[in-house]
Amino acid sequence: MAMSFDSYMKDMVKPMREDLTRLGITELLTPEQVEEAIEKSKDGTLLLVVNSVCGCAAGQCRPGVAKALQNDTLPTYTYTVFAGQEKDATAKAREFLAPYPPSSPSIALFKNGELAHFIQRHQIEDRSADMIAGDLIGAFNEFCK
Q1: 56 is catalytic
Q2: What is the pTM of this model?
């Protein structure tokens, strides 16, 4: 029995998506949803995780985000796009991450619709989940009050 590539990929990435969605992070699946989310953030703060299938997403990024979300001070909104899966939504999200080049995984914090803090892949790869959580907690405490 042949399985379609799309079906295979959906099954493969499902647990990677759930690492974030079970934390209450909402997936943005279309460019329109990305635009709506950024627009909502103009009156608050928004965490955007660019998810990925790579090992540093699994070992450092997603666990770091999970730990950071245990902080007392949190963003108003939490969202994720999945690089390589919802390509149009990810491309739209990356428009708001300028001047940074495309990077996945990566983590962005917006305040009042403007990018306030950004963690690129190279800042994830060689750091522990605890270090990433500490970085995010510092940003939450600075920008989310």
Answers
A1: yes
A2: 0.94
